[in-house]
Amino acid sequence: MTASVGYGEVKEGAELAPASYPATRLSLVKYCGASGDFNVIHWNERIAKAVGLPNVIAHGMFTMAQAGRYVTDWAGPGAAVVDFGVRFSSPVVVPDDDTGATIEVSGTVEEKLDGNRVVLALTARSGEAKVLTRARAVVRLP
Amino acid sequence: MAINRDYLGRTFPAAAPYEVSRVKIAEFADAIGDPNPLYRDRAAAQAAGYADVIAPPTFAIVISMAGSAQAVADPGLGLNYAMVVHGEQRFEYSRQIMAGDVVTAQATISDIKEAGRNVLMTTQTQIRTVDGEHVCTAHSTLVERGGAA
Questions:
Q1: Residues of chain B positioned with their CB less than 8 A from the CB of A64
Q2: Cβ A61–B34 below 8 Å, yes or no?
Q3: Can you tell me the distance from the alpha carbon of B37 to that of B22, in angstroms, rounded to the nearest whole number?
Q4: B5-20+56-144 fold
């Protein structure tokens, strides 16, 4: 984690350094337990395929959590996320191997608002798929 | 079975009060793979101006799901959960959730609509402390694939 970004240092249109986060079958099992969301499509390949999915898929909220981490890592400990919304445009498909899937997150400073708030526009991809669209976080900076 | 449209606008009973613990926050942070000390180390959280460890932003889903479960699990709603994927999610925070909070979540079904062969159902869940302080409003859109067929 880096030091907090100051509102005065931030420029509209600035691009944030991209980051990659792994999603393995173990990640999903842990996320099931921690979140309480045991929907079978997140851990049972047989049922996931039977209901028409390519394979087990990550919880949308696991993907959103990676985007959240991206935002809080950028903003630093003195900042607060005040609004955070995403659309789950494609599932993150997680194969049964040692690598799993990779979620790549990038972002730009879309707008500076009053009250030391900035709007970040985020994108998240896994392989060729855009897994989050219309992803925005409003962060209040120190 | 289709989603019962009579449920549009219905507000469900609040889930039992949820006590936010340091252990649960750390477990959640581990599960999302986030090593941020604000989620584990009280001294680090206090240095950043918080009374205790705070939760990652999306931790709010753990609490809001307890509220929306009152809707999703209602057999009268007719949601086929194996066909459900998450469509959209938004959180509006009044402040961060932190260890020691005791909160309730109360869900309202704010929208039910068809999109092609799918049905989209949106719940709006208010997370408040047991003293009535607003902490977060969660908007969740679930997609029941093939639900409109």
A1: 58, 89
A2: no
A3: 12
A4: Thiol Ester Dehydrase; Chain A (3.10.129)
CB contact under 8 Å between B36 and A60, yes or no, is: no
- Predicted TM-score (pTM) of this structure: 0.95
ipTM of the complex: 0.95
Domain ranges of chain B: 5-20+56-144
The percentage of residues in chain B with a pLDDT greater than 90, rounded to a whole number, is: 82
Biggest alpha carbon–alpha carbon distance for chain B: 55
Residues of B in contact with A25 (CB under 8 A): none
Q: In degrees rounded to 5, what are phi and psi of residue A48?
A: -55, -45
A86 vs B70, which has greater pLDDT? A86
Chain B residues closer than 8 Å to A65 by CB: 32, 34, 56, 58
Answer yes or no: do A80 and B95 touch at CB < 8 A. yes
List average pLDDT for each run of 10 residues in chain A, which is 142 residues long: 82 97 98 94 95 95 98 96 97 95 98 98 97 98 93
The domain made up of A18-140 has a fold known as Thiol Ester Dehydrase; Chain A (3.10.129)
